[in-house]
Amino acid sequence: xxxxxxxxxxxxxxxxxxxxxxxxxxxxxxxxxxxxxxxxxxxxxxxxxxxxxxxxxxxxxxxxxxxxxxxxxxxxxxxxxxxxxxxxxxxxxxxxxxxxxxxxxxxxxxxxxxxxxxxxxxxxxxxxxxxxxxxxxxxxxxxxxxxxxxxxxxxxxxxxxxxxxxxxxxxxxxxxxxx
Length: 179
Known about the structure:
There is one protein chain. The protein has helices at residues 3-14, 34-39, 51-64, 68-72, 76-89, 91-104, 123-136, 138-162, 167-177; strands spanning 17-18, 28-29, 32-33. By secondary structure, it is mostly helical. It has a 3-stranded antiparallel sheet.
């Protein structure tokens, strides 16, 4: 899995600069919110936030730190989805979706033990993923990906139901972030 290609794909969806009045993220460039840019040391105007800093943030905060790089060696399409979901919803949400899906697909712990839903990719999550992939083979990644995307879609709809201003984004979320 080439992380640079994934980052380019995300930035193509996110676009350059935005400051949509309904977006709680506020000023955003390359898909990086002002709050995230500030936490990572950027002090300038968001309209001028450099592309290379966005790339570095994506690699560090949304690929390596949450452990999606480790998922990639077992299930690259799934890792791509977790990366994108992590950018849009936070890495912990994406990791939690994976953990929930793994637990639901373990056939009542006959294939592997349930894992704690701690929303972090650690040795237990990777171990469960390895066992799942060994048991289910190549088609298992497709099913696991569908389960994660179903949880993601449900969350998008819930966000729109809970905050009507989010309806401005729902169509795009479903069109660009799932599948």
